[in-house]
Design goal:
about 525 residues, single chain, 4-stranded antiparallel β-sheet, 12 strands, Rossmann fold, alpha/beta, 6-stranded mixed β-sheet, 14 helices
């Protein structure tokens, strides 16, 4: 269909030239007018089909890229996602994919123009082989001169893409730190200066990239206009018979100057699309390196579920060195069992949260083993192992929908839990979605707990869940919910600073500077005077 469109466009040129000659000699030709109308209709139909079909194909490619990249993110390990950072993921998954979508129209138009030029040159060959050869020579020379700055243009687009990631980082800081900025004008001013500087840097690199394109575009237009001059002023002196077709040739050259401009103008779009595709491919490769390849199913012994004991044996995990030294947790020897409560305590930065992520299979070990009911957890069963835990970490996320469960089937139980959490007047589940999740931090944690309790699993993991609760719900959490889970045969692993509730634990593990010492005996219940404030 693209060929039909280009052929129809070139045919229109030939019909216009023939009609002009006919009008000069004998007046308007009805036959040529009808032929023009038929060819124009064919051109419009072909163009419409071409653009609609090309858009469908291009958007299908972009859709496939987005879904494939999103799947790669889901398949990746937590450490890889943490190292990449949210800004890079957002930018690659949204903006870079949008660039591919936006530029497809320009590239389709360039393809159409290239076909038109090809058919116009065939028509030109019927008029003058010398003019055709001159045109081809000029186009080839102009193309190579134009392409000589291609590397510079690509580098400029890459710099622009990198600066835009910096801008996304700055805007993310401004949004996430909105309250802090509102409370301190000096901090807000400093943040504003940095954001302005990054925005100006984005502007500058984009202007540089655009400047390179403008120079190349002006050169190409000038070069092709020189071609018109050569055909009008030079060829008549070289080819004696050339003057008979000079008008048709000049018209043809002027006719293809616009399409040539489209082809040349598509190079910046191609560069941007190429850079965007390169960034997406690079991210996909990085995510692929961070994911664990699936083993041969024939070699995997299924994990017996539900499990009753998890254990770390000599486990060691080290964060990647970011230039300021590395933090290592371990070696760790600890176990957790169903039907018991295990508290993990220690100062800030002692490795408590890291220990949780090691125990639930989110962080890989550099040494040691992860055991489930006496059997080592290999990569073939790590996903089914993780599904033995309900987890609310410090940086938990609330989804607006209930995924992985029949919303209507669990709704009665959820309504009961929302009443227990005193959230029944704050939010509700309607058509599988919560009416709102715009709640206070403590309320969001209570909603996350209600959702976790819907999924009946052997182990429940909490990372300082009670830290943002008022005394009433802190008391309810420690004295009602945790003992209830224990009585129901569930295991509880909780990071906590609430030493007044340590007596509820069957065992307490204390972390210090990435190392562990275990207090096997349950500490006695602590008594407090009324004047003493809560440690939380």
């Amino acid at each position: 269909m693209a060929g039909i469109s280009g052929l129809a466009n070139a045919a229109l040129l030939a019909i216009v030239n023939a009609a002009a000659e006919s009008a000069a000699a004998n007046g308007v030709s009805l036959r040529l007018l009808i032929l023009f109308a038929i060819t124009l209709s064919l051109f419009i139909i072909a163009q419409r089909y071409l653009y609609e079909r090309s858009a469908l194909i291009a958007e299908g490619v972009v859709d496939n890229l987005r879904r494939r990249l999103a799947a790669r993110i889901r398949e990746s390990e937590l450490l890889s996602i943490e190292q990449l950072g949210k800004s890079v993921l957002y930018e690659r998954l949204t903006r870079e994919a949008a660039v591919l979508s936006e530029k497809q129209g320009t590239l389709i138009a360039a393809l159409q123009s290239a076909l038109l030029i090809a058919f116009a040159m065939v028509y030109m060959a019927t008029l003058s082989v010398a003019a055709l050869l001159l045109t081809i020579a000029v186009v080839i020379v102009g193309f190579f001169i134009y392409q000589s700055s291609e590397r510079e243009a690509t580098a400029a687009h890459q710099r622009a893409a990198a600066k835009e990631v910096e801008f996304v980082n700055a805007v993310t800081d401004e949004i996430d730190g909105f309250v802090e900025l509102k409370m301190d004008r000096g901090r807000a001013a400093g943040m504003g200066e940095e954001l302005d500087a990054v925005s100006r840097a984005v502007r500058d690199v984009n202007v540089d990239a655009l400047g390179i394109f403008i120079q190349r575009y002006i050169f190409s237009q000038s070069f092709f206009l020189c071609l018109v001059g050569a055909i009008v002023f030079v060829l008549p002196r070289v080819v004696p018979s050339y003057g008979l077709v000079i008008q048709e040739l000049a018209t043809t050259i002027l006719f293809i100057v616009g399409p040539l401009g489209n082809v040349v103008g598509a190079f910046p779009a191609w560069n941007k699309a190429n850079v965007a595709m390169g960034n997406i491919v690079e991210l996909e490769e990085t995510l692929a390196r961070g994911s664990v390849p699936a083993p041969d199913p024939a070699t995997v012994i299924p994990l017996a579920t539900p499990i009753h004991e998890v254990r770390l044996e000599g486990a060691v995990f080290s964060y990647p060195d970011a230039g300021d030294g590395t933090f290592t947790v371990g070696p760790i020897d600890v176990s957790a069992r169903t039907g018991e409560i295990l508290f993990v305590v220690g100062g800030n930065g002692s490795g408590k949260s890291t220990l949780l992520k090691m125990l639930i299979g989110l962080y890989p070990f550099s040494a040691g083993r992860l055991m489930a009911d006496g059997r080592e957890v290999g990569r073939g069963v790590i996903e089914s192992y993780r599904e033995q835990f309900n987890v609310i970490l410090n940086d938990f996320h609330l989804f607006r929908r209930l995924y992985g469960v029949d919303a209507e089937a669990v709704r009665p139980r959820l309504d009961e839990l929302l009443r227990e959490m005193n959230l029944d007047r704050k939010t509700a589940l309607i058509d599988g979605r919560f009416t709102t999740i715009e709640l206070s931090t403590g309320q969001r944690k209570r909603l996350a707990l209600a959702i976790a309790l819907l999924f009946d699993r052997p182990f429940y993991v909490f990372d300082e869940w009670a830290a943002d609760q008022d005394p009433e719900f802190r008391e309810h959490f420690y004295n009602i919910i945790l003992p209830r889970l224990k009585a129901n045969g569930r295991g509880v692993i909780a990071v906590t600073h609430d030493d007044r509730y340590f007596h509820l634990a069957d065992r307490v593990v204390r972390m210090e500077y990435g190392m562990m010492r275990s207090i096997e005996a349950t500490p006695p219940k602590r008594t407090r005077t009324r004047s003493r404030t809560s440690h939380a």
